[in-house]
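Minutes, project check-in
Item: structure for the 363-residue chain
Input as provided by the requester:
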Amino acid sequence: MAAAERLARRGLGHVWPNPAVAALIVREEAGGAVVVGRGVTSRPGMAHAEVNALNQAGDKARGASCYVTLEPCSHYGRTPPCALALTNAGVSRVIVGMLDPNPRVAGRGVKMLEEAGIDVTVGVREAAMKVLYHGFTLRQLRHRPHVFLKLAASTDGYIGRAGEGQVRISGELSMRKVHGFRAVHDAILIGSGTALADDPQLTCRLPGLAERSPVRVVVDRFARLPLESKLVRGCADVPVWVICGNAADPDRMDALAEAGVNVIRVPATETGIEPSVILSALATRGITRLMVEGGARMASSFLKADLVDDLCVVTGDIVIGADGIPALHGLALADVLRDPRFKRVDAGKFGPDSFIYLRRCGA
């Protein structure tokens, strides 16, 4: 099951709104257990992990065991039920990491297998699977994606200097790690302030992983994103979604739409668009894993709304000093790191930079 979990992680950020599932078909032979089929979830509308593994195993699947990270589906959607495919292939045993939180499945896949006479074991490495499928679960049960917030700050807790704007904080290894984070998320989100100030690309630029770039999302209440920005000019290659408020200029929204941007209009208050509204809009469109990357106001709004599930804080090996711009707006970074709602799950170094990785307690 640990091997299946590692295989499943390759699909993160690549198969939404479906969960990234992996299946291994294993036969017991004279020399021991042999994997005869491996499968991962294909893009939406294509075969699921179990079917891909069965196709690779062929006749060797009969009498074999199937290790699958998430309960096989039991309903007809764009593809037939995987539980039926396993039954028809003659698999004798199915080992499941965790039950599917989707109300249309939720134990029905296991029941279908058991009624066909297949031996089923559920809950192997379940704690790890709950982490793996946290975004899928949240979308099913709370209509929002998993939120991963990445922050970078100087040793003294700043991100820039007044009058100069943001300064380079993270080293090369930290930047490569950030691009790796992008590759396993469905979407990456910034505020309009960051988009206007930095004109970022927000793509994954690790060698060989360009196609794993997430959907780029800009929360832009007044539709101010320039048509000549890197995001808009590149939206034909990597999708760009702009979330606008109800007071946005219709002509500006139309211009963005004509340029190829997916414009999403949502209710807004006098102070902005609430994080819960943003997450609901993204969940409606299939997003299960969201990376929030900038800036200080956007990060603070998600923290204040208690909508951050994972948090990685990178501390660069520089001191900004006087006139520093705080990493958060209206919150102290030191207090966030001590927040009892989070537990530390990792810490270490990215080259000269330090990092702390926190996860919501109970997640």
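Outcome recorded: The two ends are 20 Å apart (CA to CA).
No further action items on this chain.
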